[in-house]
């Protein structure tokens, strides 16, 4: 069975994006980015993989990405942002997605079916409402905590769900002040 990993950047006060869905205040340079490129190249948009010469390398961690509509339609977004992965967008209203983007309305059923398949892990890349709906299926959290306080925005989990316990696996602090904290479901 495959794992669902919620890997996302967040602020110190628990927001994954500004109120308008953008994430311009997060750090995109420094040693934490080098670690991200080396350890999780599958989680880079296809255009970034091509620019870094990684587009010919096989996926190592993820072969599927699941995202909410707001994450998919982030301002300046691409119609097929992760063409090197199987792409799923959770929405009941999205139309006109490219052929390589599958739109599903029922996130839980879709993720449960994906987890039952063989293959690499599944990356939940955002957003907060979708993460809250998928809490029962999240096996691992990789939180890239940036040294910034946004004050408001899109929360890491945006919705109600029963408490879930995770165990700390690893934590690394980079010179940029960004911390990668990894947790597994207890």
UniProtKB/TrEMBL annotation:
Pfam families: RibD_C
InterPro entries xrefs: DHFR-like_dom_sf (IPR024072), RibDG_C (IPR002734), Riboflavin_Biosynth_HTPR (IPR050765)
Top-level taxon of origin: Bacteria
SUPFAM superfamilies from the UniProt entry: Dihydrofolate reductase-like
Domain Bacterial bifunctional deaminase-reductase C-terminal: 4-179
Name this polypeptide is given: Dihydrofolate reductase family protein
Organism annotation: Saccharothrix mutabilis subsp. mutabilis
